[in-house]
Specification:
Oligomer: heterodimer
Strand order of the largest sheet of chain A: 1-3-2
Largest interface: A-B, 33 and 30 residues
Helix content of chain B: over 70%
Largest sheet of chain A: 3 strands, antiparallel
Radius of gyration of chain A: 15 Å
Strand content of chain A: 15-25%
Shape of chain A: elongated
CATH superfamily of chain A: Winged helix-like DNA-binding domain superfamily/Winged helix DNA-binding domain
Largest sheet of chain B: none
CATH class of chain A: Mainly Alpha
Number of helices of chain B: 8
Number of strands of chain A: 3
CATH topology of chain A: Arc Repressor Mutant, subunit A
Distance between the termini of chain B: 41 Å
Number of helices of chain A: 4
Number of domains of chain B: 1
Strand content of chain B: under 5%
Number of strands of chain B: 1
Structural class of chain A: alpha+beta
Chain lengths: 97, 203
């Protein structure tokens, strides 16, 4: 039986965001935007979805009078990412056979 | 939600291979973003090196009794270093686990130096102070070098463990020279090599 791929992660931009956040402790919104080459509008929609799913934490604060948004992965997000990678591996193994 | 955003969200049909590829690319991108700054190594390296040499010259050649005044540059160095790091923190857009580990390591070493200065003031420990200072340089550079995978720092750290062991047999004047040698090997040379590597990477 195939494990279903988590629909929240199985979307290019959301997966890109989560993969980035796996490697860092926290990252600013602009850093994620630059690394993913996404538009700010699209990215903020996807970030909101990840936040709603409880996969990431979003902190908004002011730094030198500019609003700054920082994202951080949660333990639920890490678990979901690991489960997603495991499911991917299943798919790929079946593909080889 | 606008139309384009909706479409972007719909792109769910990408294959497991593409998925894996994307994960790899993203993880690679965060690896490149580990900011390795040679400023601290060069700043502290040269400052301590010059202090060691100046104190040695004042003490041995000029017989100047207040030779230890050179170390008053350390709190000033601390302030400069602190201002620099707070400015850098404002520019930094991501914070990796390695950077976090490095900052805690150096905070711990900084605290250890405060304790050692206190111990030196209230006891006779200053006579062999450099044995412990060099041990601190050894720990700091060995761990940092290993975390950022930069061999010259690791080698400098290992050599400093040896210099620390040897230094206990020297008097204070000899310890000053060994201190200068230790900082040259573990901070200054790796610091310049790191700067070269960083500059070539950027271009």
């Amino acid at each position: 039986m195939f494990k279903e791929l988590d629909p929240i992660l199985h979307s290019q931009l959301r997966l890109a965001v989560v993969s980035l956040l796996i490697g860092v402790k926290e990252a600013e919104f602009t850093f994620i935007r630059d690394k993913t080459n996404a538009t700010a509008g699209n990215l903020s929609v996807q970030v909101q979805k990840l936040k709603d799913a409880g996969y990431i934490e979003v902190t908004k604060q002011f730094k030198d009078n500019y609003p700054q948004t920082t994202c951080k992965i949660t333990s639920k997000g890490i678990e979901a990412f690991e489960a997603y990678v495991q499911a991917l591996q299943q798919y790929l193994q079946v593909g080889k056979e | 939600m606008s139309n384009t955003e909706y479409q972007n969200d719909r792109e769910k049909s990408f294959s497991p291979e593409e998925s894996l590829q994307l994960i790899q690319t993203m993880i690679q991108k965060t690896k490149d973003s580990v900011a390795v700054d040679s400023f601290y190594l060069l700043f502290w390296g040269w400052l301590v090196f010059v202090c060691c040499i100046v104190e040695y010259v004042l003490m041995v050649y000029f017989k100047y009794p207040y030779h230890s005044f050179v170390w008053w540059t350390m709190p000033i160095g601390g302030i400069i270093s602190g201002v620099y790091s707070s400015r850098q923190a404002k520019k930094q857009k991501s914070f990796t686990y390695i950077e976090e580990a490095l900052s805690y390591l150096w905070i711990a070493i900084g605290l250890a130096f405060f304790v050692m200065v206190f111990v030196n003031i209230v006891s006779e420990a200053w006579k062999t102070a450099f044995t412990y200072y060099i041990l601190m340089y050894a720990i700091g550079t060995f761990v940092s070098g290993s975390l950022i995978r930069f061999k010259p720092l690791v080698i400098g750290g290992i050599l400093n463990f040896i210099i620390a062991a040897v230094s206990i047999k020297f008097n204070f004047a000899g310890q000053l020279l060994l201190g200068a040698l230790a900082i040259l090997i573990s901070y200054i040379i790796p610091g310049h090599l790191l700067r070269i590597r960083y500059n070539t990477k950027k271009n």
